[in-house]
Structures are given as C-alpha cells and as structure tokens.
Design a protein that fits this description.
mainly alpha; 14 helices; 82% helix
Length: 326
C-alpha cells in the first residue's frame, strides 16, 4: 500500500511538471509559427492547462477504470469553484466585470450542467460525440468573443505574458536565446511526461481504491482530482498575487468548461466498446450546485469577499459527506 501511494505521488509530480512544459512549449511554438495570440490564449493555453485532467481521465477510461475517470473530472470541476476559488478570495477580494459574468461564466456553467446530465445518463461513445460537438461550438464562441473589442487585447496580452514566463523548473536561458528546435522538443517531451505520469497515477490510484474497498469514483473525486487541479491552483495564486482577479475567474470557469466538454468527450470516446460509466445523482447535483453557487456569489456584487470565500470552502467541505452518504 505504501509503495503504491508513493508511486501515485511520483506520477502526480511527473504529471504536474510535464504539463507545465507541455503548455509552455506548445504556446511558444504557436507564437513562433505566428498563430494569433488570441488563438494561443483561448485554445493552446486554455486546453493545455486542462491537459492533466484530460489525459488522466482518458488513460483511466482506456484502462477500463471509468469510475476514476468520471470522478476526476467531477472532482476537478467542484475543486476549481470551491477550494481553489475560495483560497484565492481569502488572499484578497476578487472583482470581475459584468461582461465576464454575462458571457463566459454562463457558458462554463452550461457546460458543467451538460456534462453532469450526460455523466448521469452514462458516458460512452455516443455521449462522447455529443460533448465533443458541444466543445467545438464552445471554442468557436469563445474565439469569436475574444476577437471582439477589449477582449481581444486582454487575451493577447495574457498569452504574451504567459509565453514569456518560465516554467516552475526551467532552463536559466531567456526564451529568445533558445534555439528554434527547443520548444517543439519541450512540447513533445512534456506530452510524453504527462502520459507517463498519468499512467503511473491512474494505475496506482486504481489499485489503492481496490485495496481500500473504496469506489473508484471517490478516489477520482478526491485524491486524483486534487492532484490534477494543482496547475489551476498554481496559476490562480500567481494571478491573484499580480492583482489579476478577472484572470483568476476566467481561468477557473474556463478550466471547468474544457474539463466538462473536452474532458468528458475524451472519457466517452476512450471508453472500451460497450462500456458505459454513470455518475450518481449526488455527484451530478454537486457539480451543478457548486457551479451555480460560485456564479451566484460573483453575480451578486461582481466580486468575492473573504466571507464569501469561506462559504465556498464550506461548500467543498460538505461535498464529501454528501457523496459518501449517497
């Protein structure tokens, strides 16, 4: 048991650092290929920061551990808008514009509702296709909004800042001094590392669930989801320190959108033929209620106070008894 726990932690560490280099290498490569900064910000960085959830859940579904896959996505969705957002709001008030509350946030909440319903119905090849189509439509809408007016400048600036930043563990060389071949190699090695870390994490998490006699969905919702949400937590803390509270909200709700639509599609399409994994009613309702709670608190005053942060943290604390009693 101890060895499996250590191997799962090792997989999580590899996953976290490899995902960092995957996103950084991909975004810098896209920049060198002169891809629009808006596209880099919305698609490359947006999808890349959710890569741990996608790949861990995809690997789990392909192995037949679909309970772990669904629990990971559901847990990440709940964690982002309760624990991570609550921690950020405790560090300082979070203010957002009415534009974000009217447009991006409702789309993300709608994505969570759709995933919750389809996860309750059962994730398989058919529902995976539905989620994939919804994901393409959502990305199209986000790109269209990002190209309009002030949003264009904000997304482009954020993408530029991201590509100039260093990875958590990086080479002490300025990006402009690195050879042209380095970023593609970084991205490929990052992808290989994420896949290796995901395999190590999933195989050992599944074994731990079996040894403890705990449903895979619970392990996925807690330990695995907490691990795969570390990139969002680090990004959120860094953005909050810089005073970019709107970026915090956009990143977390955007992560839930990609988790629900693209991640859900990956689980459905990667599931073995004829296999269907269903989320319990409590799990589906929890995802919807936590997304609605975060949206309601932000919409009420276009900000989050420390008191409201405690409400979100309390909501996260209540999710586990709810799931265990279901």
């Amino acid at each position: 048991m101890v060895v499996r726990i250590l191997l799962a932690v090792a997989g999580l560490v590899v996953l976290t650092f490899a995902a960092d280099h995957l996103v950084l290498g991909s975004s810098r490569l896209a920049q060198r290929l002169r891809i629009s900064p808006v596209v880099v910000g919305v698609i490359v960085i947006g999808l890349g920061t959710s890569a741990p959830e996608f790949l861990v859940s995809g690997v789990a579904a392909a192995r037949g551990d679909t309970g772990l896959a669904v629990g990971n996505i559901a847990g990440s969705n709940v964690l982002n808008l309760t624990l991570v957002l609550g921690i950020a709001a405790l560090a300082g008030p979070i203010a957002v514009s009415s534009r974000v509350i009217r447009r991006e946030v409702p789309v993300a909440v709608g994505a969570v509702v759709l995933f919750s319903f389809l996860a309750w119905v059962g994730l398989n090849r058919v529902t995976g296709v539905v989620l994939a189509v919804a994901g393409v439509c959502a990305i199209f809408v986000l790109l269209r909004w990002a190209h309009q007016g002030r949003g264009n400048e904000e997304v482009a600036t954020e993408a530029e800042e991201f590509t100039q930043a260093d990875a958590a563990v990086d080479m002490p060389v300025r990006p402009s001094k690195l050879p042209a071949w380095f970023e593609p190699v970084r991205a490929i090695l990052g992808l290989a590392g994420v896949l290796a870390g995901a395999q190590l994490l999933v195989s050992n998490a599944s074994a731990i669930a079996t040894d403890l006699g705990v449903p895979q969905v619970i392990i996925g919702f807690t330990l695995v989801a907490l691990g795969t949400s570390l990139p969002e937590l680090m990004t959120t803390v860094q953005a909050q320190r810089r005073g970019e509270s709107e970026l915090v909200v956009g990143n977390l709700f955007g992560s839930n959108l990609f988790n629900s639509l693209v991640g859900g599609a990956v689980v459905g399409l990667a599931s073995r033929s004829g296999a269907t994994e269903r989320a319990g009613v409590a799990l589906s309702v929890t995802m919807i209620l936590t997304a609605g709670l975060a949206w309601m608190l932000l919409r009420r005053g276009l900000s989050l106070t420390r008191v409201e942060a405690l409400v979100l943290l309390g909501a996260y604390a209540l999710t586990m008894p709810l799931l265990l009693s279901s």
